[in-house]
Model the fold of this input.
Amino acid sequence: MKRILYASSGFFTDDAIAEALMEYASVLAIVDSADVVTIPGVDEDGKVREIMLIIGPASQLISMGSDAVSVDLDAEQAVNDLRQRIRRRLPSSIGVGVARRSGPAETDAESTSHESR
Done:
């Protein structure tokens, strides 16, 4: 389970859902758009809830590992929905990160450092 921090609150969700959510948030930043998504999660009281989030270029999401006990969530459906949204939003000529590089994609800080050289 991953803990998602969003605004002044947080919740837990399946690792695959958290990964797809973070990827979708980065796609929305690339295309300068926003969307409302609903994913299954576990609140701070341990109750399974449907969590609705608005995510976009200004969203400040944090996904972090946790020691929370794994809860059976419908991860497959949520991940499929997020992946479908990613495919619809992301033009085929743009990838998240740089697909042909063997290492990690350059961060904003790294790309800015090239400008001063």
The CA atoms of residues 27 and 90 lie 6 Å apart. The longest strand covers residues 35-42. Helices lie at 15-30, 75-89, 108-115. DSSP finds three helices and five strands in the chain.
